[in-house]
Design a protein that fits this description.
This protein has about 290 residues and is an alpha/beta fold. It is built from 10 helices and 7 strands. The protein has a 4-stranded mixed β-sheet. The chain has a 3-stranded mixed β-sheet with strand order 2-3-4. Strand 3 and strand 4 form a beta hairpin. Helix 7 runs antiparallel to helix 8, helix 8 packs antiparallel against helix 9 and helix 9 runs antiparallel to helix 10. The longest helix has about 35 residues. Bound molecules: fe (ii) ion (2 copies). The site of one fe (ii) ion has 5 residues, from helix 7 and helix 8.
Length: about 290
């Protein structure tokens, strides 16, 4: 029996915190810099609450300037706290039951870490994969096809969002528009990175198992992904470059979006057809004929 996971195994240790006197604008900037959605709020060395990206968004939706609101006014007090040794199962149950989206790890009155829903889901995926013998590869070709195609739907949604944000920046570059573009572009590029990893793990073996041509196709897909990875990294770096004018960044995103749309289409036509990925042979059994 595997050892029980505890909070310590999944938490983000020494999380960045923010003070009650700081403004929501400062907190918002900090969250974006760190790519986090929750900040513990500390006052006099003690935990006072948690501020989440959603709390900030709520204030923003009221058309209030984030510079005019202090963290103290928007934080959620009495956050759910746990210790490092709390079993993760307990924490996950409590988070689900009370709809908490994070737990703050406190030891002797000091904030030691934070566990978010994303951390809990990552642990869940790891545990499920371990139970399945680490084999998403055990999917049949038609399941692989379904999983990849549904991710394509999600990615198309992200492409639309990034394109929309880029067009707005092209029209009139504002700070807010640029922020939206950076967020949409960042999410798009990160999701694509994860998508390629999934394809390498499940689509490549599925293709390889089909027939002799499958190997050629799988090799082509790997090469394609290596190229895409380079392009994505370059695009991500460009988005983060502060000295580059917003309109140029928007043009870069629009070029990337157009290219990625073509890639998705081509992939669906050539590699993800129902005819190619059918279940006559379970994945991995090509040589058992
Ligand atoms: Fe791909
Ligand atoms: Fe894909």
């Amino acid at each position: 029996m595997a050892e029980l996971l505890t909070v310590r195994d999944v938490m983000t240790a020494a999380p960045h915190a923010i003070g009650v006197e700081q403004t929501l604008a400062q907190a918002h900037r900090r969250m974006r810099e760190l790519s986090v959605r929750h900040l513990p709020v500390i006052h006099g060395g003690r935990l006072r609450g948690v501020l989440s990206a959603r709390d900030v968004a709520l204030v923003k939706a009221l058309d209030v300037e984030l510079d005019d609101v202090r963290v103290e006014e928007a934080l959620v007090g009495e956050p759910y706290t746990v210790s490092e040794r709390t079993p993760l199962t307990r924490v996950a149950r409590a988070m689900a039951a009370h709809k908490y989206d994070c737990a703050v790890v406190v030891e002797h009155g000091q904030v030691k870490g934070i566990v978010t829903v994303s951390d809990a889901l990552r642990a869940l995926a790891g545990a499920l994969e371990a139970e399945l013998g680490g084999a998403p590869e055990a999917m049949t070709p038609s399941q692989v096809r379904e999983v990849i195609l549904s991710e394509h739907v999600h990615i198309r949604g992200l492409l639309d969002r990034a394109e929309h944000a880029a067009r707005q920046v092209r029209e009139s570059p504002t700070d807010e528009g640029s922020e939206r573009l950076a967020a949409a572009g960042g999410q798009l590029y990160a999701s694509l990175g994860a998508h390629m990893e999934l394809e390498n793990r499940v689509l490549v073996p599925a293709l390889e198992s089909i027939d002799a041509w499958g190997r050629v196709r799988a090799e082509g897909l790997r090469r394609e992904h290596a190229e895409q990875k380079g392009a994505l990294e370059a695009a991500q770096a460009e988005l983060g470059r502060s000295e580059q004018p917003a309109r140029e960044k928007a043009d870069g995103v629009l070029r990337m979006v157009a290219m990625l749309r073509k890639d998705l289409e081509l992939e669906e036509e050539t590699l993800l057809s129902a005819r190619l990925l059918q279940d006559a042979l379970p994945v991995g059994s090509a040589d058992s004929e």
